[in-house]
Amino acid sequence: MPEVNVEINGRKYRMACEDGQEEHLLALAGRFNASIEALKGSFGEIGDNRLTVMAGIAVLDELQEAERRIARLQHDIAELTEAGEALANEAGELEHKFGKRMAEAARKIEAIASAIDEAGAGAAPTQENGRL
């Protein structure tokens, strides 16, 4: 298991991590150290333990806010998915109704065309009735 040396608040710590996670651990430590440095800039030297606890709480506050945003986004996604499914169902129903109406219109047009053909066939000129 690889080990990484990280620096937090001016102190070095040796930490173990999984293979391939070295850079990730260094980045996390750097981010945590930046939180401590920001608090130091705001409050001055208030003691290592207190500073570390404040930084940890600040990071957890950010995490909790991110989790709330994720939950809201997941809720929004669920609502949008449900609305999309409802629209898809409605579109399918409209398509089905439209198809039925088109088929009915086509049937009526064919019936009219047949009636016209039949009427025209009865009045068609023939040599027998003397009309051409």
From TrEMBL:
<dbReference type="InterPro" id="IPR007838">
    <property type="entry name" value="Cell_div_ZapA-like"/>
</dbReference>
<protein>
    <recommendedName>
        <fullName>Cell division protein ZapA</fullName>
    </recommendedName>
</protein>
<dbReference type="GO" id="GO:0043093">
    <property type="term" value="P:FtsZ-dependent cytokinesis"/>
</dbReference>
<feature type="coiled-coil region">
    <location>
        <begin position="63"/>
        <end position="97"/>
    </location>
</feature>
<dbReference type="GO" id="GO:0005829">
    <property type="term" value="C:cytosol"/>
</dbReference>
<dbReference type="Pfam" id="PF05164">
    <property type="entry name" value="ZapA"/>
</dbReference>
<dbReference type="InterPro" id="IPR042233">
    <property type="entry name" value="Cell_div_ZapA_N"/>
</dbReference>
<comment type="subunit">
    <text>Homodimer. Interacts with FtsZ.</text>
</comment>
<keyword id="KW-0963">Cytoplasm</keyword>
<keyword id="KW-0131">Cell cycle</keyword>
<dbReference type="InterPro" id="IPR036192">
    <property type="entry name" value="Cell_div_ZapA-like_sf"/>
</dbReference>
<keyword id="KW-0717">Septation</keyword>
<dbReference type="GO" id="GO:0000917">
    <property type="term" value="P:division septum assembly"/>
</dbReference>
<dbReference type="GO" id="GO:0030428">
    <property type="term" value="C:cell septum"/>
</dbReference>
<comment type="function">
    <text>Activator of cell division through the inhibition of FtsZ GTPase activity, therefore promoting FtsZ assembly into bundles of protofilaments necessary for the formation of the division Z ring. It is recruited early at mid-cell but it is not essential for cell division.</text>
</comment>
<keyword id="KW-0175">Coiled coil</keyword>
<dbReference type="GO" id="GO:0032153">
    <property type="term" value="C:cell division site"/>
</dbReference>
<dbReference type="GO" id="GO:0000921">
    <property type="term" value="P:septin ring assembly"/>
</dbReference>
<keyword id="KW-0132">Cell division</keyword>
